[in-house]
Amino acid sequence: MKKIIITLFITALIAGFYADSNAIPAFARKYNMSCNVCHSPFPKLKPYGEDFAANGFQLPDKEPARFFKNTGDELLTLMREIPVALRFELYGQYENARDVNPDFRSPYILKLLSGGNIYKDISYYFYFFFSERGSVAGIEDAFVMFNNVLSKKIDMDLYAGQFQISDPLFKRELRTELEDYKIYATTPGRSMANLKYDRGLMLTYGAPTKTNFALEVINGSGIDTKDVFDVDKYKNAMFRVSQEVTPFLRIGGFGYYGKEQLDSVSNELYMAGADLTLGNDKVELNAQYVYRSDINPGMTGIKPSERVKTNGGFVELLVSPKGDKSRVTGSLLYNYVDSDFKELNYQSYTGTLNYLLARNVRLVGEYTYIKDTKTSKVSLGIISAF
Q1: Each residue of 110-142: pLDDT tens digit?
Q2: Quick one: which of 75, 81, 125, 273 has the most CB atoms within 10 Å?
């Protein structure tokens, strides 16, 4: 076992040194600044990075004139070059429950990202997976954002397109662990509704009282659909509110209601949850709880006599000893799911250690123990963005 771990680490280390450690992603290129202005460590966003994204990927009064063409038409904004970036991840993994060990997972992820301004206060963002876990996954995030839709003085934004329902809670794409936030991806029976990707509209509002609101109206069918993007006539909705209590504490809650239909059989469901973020730039604790109740998630002709219940959540501890100057960071993640559909039950413990070889090249080592199956996984790899 020790020899296997050493072999995986050496492989990851060699790959890291051949990564383009001098390259910088699209937004850093545009504003000629370091990645750690917005990230610590990437892809995790700092408050400044969150504000930048919420402002339509632009810095007020700091937009470089050279970045746009002078078309002579005030109704036309054209970027001189389309901003693009790449994210590349590779891993070596050992799993005690698997016959094939070690497994070199390279590339584990290779994706193209782009985002920027279409017009003043109108922006876009998308990314395309050239490869995800050995196959072409296609587009996941893809939306147009209208910044300050009512006026400059009112912090209200509208998103239209494809996004993660859980984005106003905790962003799965920005976590530093390979292990997922399991409850967001949990779907009982034949139901297609969860807190992952979907298509629709999202309206967000930041009140002067440091209260944030989000309203989503979505298909409720996820994105694994063809021809018709929604498989039924219903639309689902989620409402979210969070409050900054102190500079180091934010609490929030959400509610989700939906209805879905497959083969003339319907299911009605609701979800509710609470969350908190506690800490500062050096130590941060995130916690999420989700309760879900379905009438007929199996989409069977005979409905269950009682509602099907699923609940769970996660607790995540992030440590950056020197704040955004840290080259060594770590995290602990606990996942828990308990459902009347017993096959969904899940409990895992994850520890992750990161080392920034460069500002945009991260070495990562991770250990996960899944209690239900007594599975141990050791992953070592490289994450780079350029």
Answers
A1: 999 998 888 888 999 999 998 888 888 889 899
A2: 273
AA letter at 159: Y
C-alpha distance from residue 306 to each of 55, 236, 267, 293, 297 (Å): 45, 22, 13, 10, 12
Q: Provide, for the chain, the percentages of residues in helix, strand and coil under a 3-state DSSP scheme, each rounded to the nearest 5.
A: 15, 50, 35
Per-residue pLDDT reduced to its tens digit, 62-118: 666 667 788 888 888 888 888 888 899 999 999 998 988 999 988 999 999 998 888
- Please give the helix or strand (H or E) that residue 31 lies within, else none: helix 26-31
Going from the N-terminus, what domains does the chain have, and what CATH number goes with each?
2-385 (2.40.160.10)
332 Cβ contact list (under 8 Å, min separation 6): 316, 317, 349, 350, 351, 352
Read off the amino acid at residue 324: D
pTM of the model: 0.84
